[in-house]
Amino acid sequence: MNSIDASPSPSTSDTSERKRRTRSALKTYDAEKTTTAKKVIQELSVKAKPKALPLRELIQSIKPEIEAARKANYSLEDIASALKSIEIEVTTNALRRYLRKPKAAKPKAKSA
Questions:
Q1: Cα 81 to Cα 75: distance, rounded to the nearest angstrom
Q2: Is 88 helix (H, G, I), strand (E, B) or coil?
Q3: Global pTM value
Q4: Contact 37, 82 (CB under 8 A)
Q5: Contacts (Cβ under 8 Å, ≥6 apart) of 44
Q6: Do residues 79 and 69 lie in contact, with contact meaning Cβ atoms separated by under 8 Å?
Q7: Which three-class secondary structure state does DSSP give residue 17?
Q8: What is the pLDDT of residues 10-61, one digit of tens each?
Q9: CB 40 within 8 A of CB 86
């Protein structure tokens, strides 16, 4: 007779403990992400108060904060909705356009 070395199956208490720890970790992650998003929104709202600026200039004035949010894995959609919550209406396409580096002008060729 062959004896099979069966490893013990995890008990239901071990499984439920793992599930509980996973849920707890996810809640902590969600709370941290929400807190970070609120901080980004607050920083943007402090910088973005002058309403007299045209939208392009306003976006350029808060560009470092927007770039920091992008590095923190926030999408342009997230940033646009954060700006919308502080009453700055901007689309993701407009953000992308305003944040783009200007293209260098091509020198005109002189005709001989």
A1: 10
A2: coil
A3: 0.47
A4: yes
A5: 62, 65, 66, 82, 83, 86
A6: yes
A7: helix
A8: 566 777 777 777 777 766 766 666 666 667 777 766 655 555 678 888 888 8
A9: no
